[in-house]
Design goal:
single chain; about 675 residues; mainly beta; six-stranded mixed sheet; 10 helices; binds (dicuprio-$l^{3}-sulfanyl)-sulfanyl-copper; binds dinuclear copper ion
Length: about 675
């Protein structure tokens, strides 16, 4: 956000004196305390050994990951690596998962994750998958919620900044990705000053309901604005998708000023059923486009990559009726559709009101051709013909809105640092609560769906100075849990978060708790380097490549003494955890490795690449304290100079040695 904290607090102080004052006075003031309701402690207390009511999935922001918290306790349950390497468990470091981070730009170890989105059935989160977008190098990922693991990543071509993503249609037929930055399509070397002529946006619809098969169904070519966020219609507006756009000025420099000129920008309303028709009628153009699709094979658990080469591109000029623009004040950020599917709420960052469009009025305006102009084949509907109402004096800097399913909407106010509750239909503000500070997204479990579980609201705040013990120049971002079960919002709890959580989603624990996988079945493990029993490990050489197959079980590796490796070799340790018991993990690391450890789930095979740099003895050990004799869980690799005649040796059974020798002879 471009609004400075200082400036924002001044504005806040000017508009709502109490908040400015609160900031000015010391932490833990009586005022702050009194904002916390008397029974807050008991409301968030989850006794040791008890479960939380909700799973909450928060984006890890610029960590690239997803963080899973229990609500109401705010306890961190897990970090799920998605778009960034994760040394804690070897994601993106081991050979099995590296392909997930492949792109047409090569292997990318990092991205910025923004908006987690649960899969839905009939407009209600169903707990099958969680999707999340990569903002920097546009991609979408699928996380399986029986394992809490990333299973699939699709790159989005003809896009530069995958921000309006990966919001889902009500039955998860599609998730979307819209480009934040318009660029030449195809992207090529042109003067930046030719922006208005050459730069375009795209809205991508991605098929999402089949694991391992995500693909771009079609893209829609749009004017060169910045596309910011999106949400699907539902109920009566099912079949439509809404995207905010700003920079309708098409500025290419100093956007802070130059993209803040127009009083209104647009919400783009996309009729994706119409888009499907145009594709079926051959009206979409097949465009050469280079992108990667990566997915995890379900039995070998090995990630694979394929390169794709074309997409179907729809130009609204040749597919009339596919898109309309709803004028919307001013530089809108979030766009959110209420549970009934009738109201489309935009968060105009610089607007003084919260505009709410009516789907019914929009349809009538389309039928009546109430257009004020047409831009690149996209009719602009008249503001008065589509607006349902405006929330007056809501606060400053509205960004995002969620719903409680009881007729109320809650909007985050970045500048005035508050959450504002207002009534759908009458548009009156009924309550407001300060948050600490500069709230971006907010989340109600199911709050963007047809059936919100409207008990709690989580405010995700960018700035926390003075809320926690100071930790140097950078403080954690934070979440604040707010009780919305009554008329008045009540602050219950603060907890720090990982990275910068943009959006979050949550659902009742019961939806997924009992579907959790406890271990991978060893018998079904088809990793080509699996070792299924003690005596099946060994060592084999192919040129300068050495493969070591090994098992891990409490409390040893087998084999655990290895010889015959030479300087100049590339060594692969293929380690299988042959435990068949929930939560019994082992780890693997070897002295001097330029890699992360492996963490091995029960029944799983993971592979670590190692290039030893000099002769000597290299110990390896289990990194996960797995048993009383965990410290005994170790071994040695002997590395000899290049060209030495040290024989290959692994201290496993005679039978295995004989088989390996045979296999080796066979290769010659
Ligand atoms: S965006 S506030 Cu991706 Cu609102 Cu974060
Ligand atoms: Cu296995 Cu420690």
């Amino acid at each position: 956000m471009k609004i400075s904290f200082k400036g924002s607090m001044l504005l806040a102080a000017a508009s709502i004196g109490a908040i400015g004052l609160l900031y000015a006075c010391a932490p833990k003031s009586a005022t702050t305390q009194s904002l916390v309701s008397g029974d807050a402690a008991s409301r968030v207390y989850v006794a040791p050994g008890s479960y939380d009511e909700f799973y909450s999935f928060m984006s890890g922001g610029y960590s690239g990951q997803v963080a899973v918290y229990g609500l109401p306790s705010g306890r961190l349950l897990k970090l799920i690596p998605v778009f960034s390497q994760f040394p804690e468990d070897g994601y993106g470091y081991n050979e099995e998962t590296k392909p997930l981070l492949q792109t047409t730009y090569g292997f990318l170890p990092w991205d910025d994750s923004h908006h987690p989105e649960l899969s839905q059935t009939d407009g209600v989160p169903d707990g099958r998958w969680l999707f999340i977008n990569a903002n920097n190098t546009p991609r979408v990922a699928r996380i399986d919620l029986t394992r809490f693991e990333t299973d699939e990543i699709l790159q989005i071509p003809n896009s530069a900044g995958g921000h309006a993503s990966p919001f889902t249609t009500p039955s998860t037929k599609y998730i979307v990705s819209a480009t934040r930055f318009s660029v030449p399509i195809p992207n090529t070397d042109v003067p930046i000053a030719s922006y208005k002529k050459n730069f375009k946006g795209t809205l991508s619809f991605i098929t999402a309901d089949q694991p391992g098969k995500m693909d771009i169904a079609f893209q829609i070519l749009m004017p060169g604005y910045n596309y910011d966020l999106g949400h699907a219609g539902k109920g009566p507006s099912d079949g439509w998708f809404f995207f905010t756009s700003y920079n309708s000025e098409e500025a290419n420099a100093k956007l802070e000023e130059n993209a803040s000129q127009n009083d209104k920008d647009f919400v783009a309303a996309v009729n994706y059923k119409r888009a499907e028709e145009c594709v079926a009628q051959g009206k979409a153009e097949s465009r050469p486009s280079d992108y990667m699709h990566n997915w995890v094979d379900s039995t070998s658990r090995l990630a694979k990559s394929e390169r794709k080469s074309s997409v179907k591109l729809i130009d609204p000029q040749t597919c009339p009726g596919v898109a309309y623009y709803l004028p919307t004040p001013k530089s809108p950020h979030g766009v959110d559709v209420d549970p009934t599917g009738e109201y489309i709420v935009a968060g105009g960052k610089l607007a003084t009101v919260i505009p709410v469009h009516s789907f019914t009025k929009m349809q009538k305006a389309i039928a009546d051709k109430a257009f004020e102009s047409t831009i690149d084949g996209i009719p602009v509907l008249k503001y008065d013909a589509v607006i349902a109402g405006e929330v007056q004096r809501p606060g400053l800097g509205p960004l995002h809105t969620e719903f409680d399913g009881k007729g109320y909407a809650y909007t985050s106010m970045f500048i005035s640092s508050e959450v504002v509750k207002w009534k759908l239909g009458t548009w009156e503000v009924v309550d407001r609560i300060p948050v600490y500070y500069s709230v971006g997204h907010l989340m109600i479990p199911g709050g963007d769906s047809k059936k919100p579980w409207g008990m709690y609201l989580v405010s995700m705040n960018k700035i926390t100075k003075d809320r926690y013990l100071p930790t140097g120049p950078e403080m954690a971002q934070s979440a604040q849990l707010i009780d919305i079960s009554g008329d008045k919002m009540k602050l219950l709890l603060d907890f720090p978060t990982i990275g910068e959580p943009h959006y979050a989603q949550a659902l009742p624990a019961g939806v997924i708790k009992d579907k959790q996988l406890k271990y991978h079945k060893l018998a079904e493990n088809t990793n080509p380097w699996v070792t299924k029993s003690e005596n099946d490990g060994g060592i084999a050489r192919t040129g300068k490549r050495v493969d070591i197959k090994m098992i891990a079980i409490r409390s040893h590796f087998a084999p655990d003494n290895l010889e015959g490796v030479q300087v100049g070799d590339t060594v692969y340790f293929h380690v299988t955890n042959i435990e068949q018991d929930w939560d019994i993990l082992h780890g693997f690391a070897v002295l001097g490795m330029a890699n992360s450890e492996l963490i091995l789930e029960p029944g799983d095979t993971r592979t670590l690449q190692w290039i030893p740099k000099g002769p000597g003895i290299y110990p390896f050990y289990c990194t996960d304290f797995c048993s009383a004799l965990h410290q005994e869980m170790q071994g040695y690799v002997r590395v000899s100079p290049a060209g030495s005649n040290t024989k290959l040796m692994a201290n496993v059974s005679k039978k295995t040695q004989a088989q390996l020798a045979e296999a080796k002879n066979g290769q010659r």
